[in-house]
Design brief:
2 domains; alpha+beta; single chain; 19% helix; 126 residues; 2 helices; 4-stranded antiparallel beta sheet; 7 strands
């Protein structure tokens, strides 16, 4: 949800479960967070970082960027992961408020207004 409120290029991708997953594994099996532009995209990846000698489960997040601006998008996604982890992880979840489309809506300090034909959804982080 954090990326959806701070990134205009936010999107979701998914990996076909019937396709080979040995090369790259998305962080989430379905609908993985991504940043997407006209000619590039980047997404979260996940790899097993578990030492084989222990029973503990450890994973490492990463990012992969593809396309002309893939490296730039990957840095942006990486930076937002760090912002979330260091500054917002322990905050309460965002508050949601729904307004009619023609209402005057308060602009959240941190968050986003999602405008639709009949409504406006405000997602604000405290």
């Amino acid at each position: 949800m954090w990326l959806g409120t701070v990134e205009d290029r936010f999107g979701m991708i998914w990996q076909d479960p019937d396709r080979d997953r040995d090369l790259v594994q998305t962080a989430l099996r379905w609908y993985c967070p991504a940043l997407i532009t006209r000619d590039s995209f980047t997404y979260l990846t996940l790899r097993d970082a578990q030492p084989r000698a222990t029973a503990a489960v450890h994973y490492e997040l990463g990012v992969y960027g593809h396309g002309h601006h893939g490296a730039e998008l990957a840095r942006r996604l990486h930076d937002q992961i760090k912002v979330w982890d260091h500054a917002w992880r322990h905050h309460p979840e965002p508050a949601f408020s729904l307004y009619p489309a023609d209402a005057t809506v308060p602009n959240p300090t941190v968050g986003r207004i999602f405008r639709k034909r009949h409504t406006q959804l405000v997602m604000a982080w405290a």
